[in-house]
Amino acid sequence: MEPTPIRHVLAFALAVAACTQDADRSPATRQAAPAATPAPTVSSSSAPAVAASAVAPILAHGPVDPGGGVNPRLLRRFQPLAPVPANDADPVAQAKSDLGRQLFHEPRLSKSGRLSCNSCHNLRTYGVDNAPTSTGHANQLGSRNSPTVYNAGGAFAQFWDGRAPNVEEQAKGPILNGAEMGMPSAAAVVAVLKAIPGYVEGFKRAFPDDGDPVTYDNLGRAIGAFERKLVTPGRWDKFLEGDKQALTSAEVEGLKTFLNVGCMVCHTGRYLGASMFERLGVVEPWPNQKDKGRLEVTKADGDRMMFKVPTLRNVEKTAPYFHDGSAATLDVAVQMMARHQLGLELTPAEVSSIVTWLDALTGDLPVELIAKPELPR
Question: What is the 3-state secondary structure (H, E, C) of the chain?
Answer without folding.
Answer: CCCCCHHHHHHHHHHHHHHHHHHCCCHHHHCCCCCCCCCCCEECCECCCCCHHHHHHHHHHCCECCCCCECHHHHCCCCCCCCCCCCCCCHHHHHHHHHHHHHHCCHHHCCCCCCCHHHHCCHHHCCCCCCCCCECCCCCECCCCCCCCCCHHHCCCECCCCCECCHHHHCCHHHHCCCCCCCCCHHHHHHHHHCCHHHHHHHHHHCCCCCCCCCHHHHHHHHHHHHCCCCCCEHHHHHHCCCCCCCCHHHHHHHHHHHHHCHHHCCCCCCCCCCCEEECCCCCCCCCCCCCECHHHHCCHHHCCEEECCCCCCHHHCCCECCCCCECCHHHHHHHHHHHHHCECCCHHHHHHHHHHHHCCCECCCHHHHCCCCCCC
